[in-house]
Amino acid sequence: MTTVWVLVHEHRHGTELSVHRTRKGALAAAMRPILDSLDDVDPALRRRLEDLIARGEYEVALIHWQSNIGTPEGRVLRIEERPLLA
To answer: How far apart (Å, rounded) are the C-alpha atoms in residues 50 and 77?
Structure first.
């Protein structure tokens, strides 16, 4: 059985899904909405997230974003492991 990784991005306009072959690919894709959300963020938090992303620490960046920006704004980014059914 093949596994795929689904990036789920819930926000005020709905839910977006993207399917990836690896967890690393899904994590990398999660960085785009994170970077896009940093315009009105405290500069120290912005630098911290940008630094984590630049170093490839995607898991930590995702957790940090979710607790500091995503959840308070009602946004969710999560990665789900799913079997690919033939």
So the answer is: 17
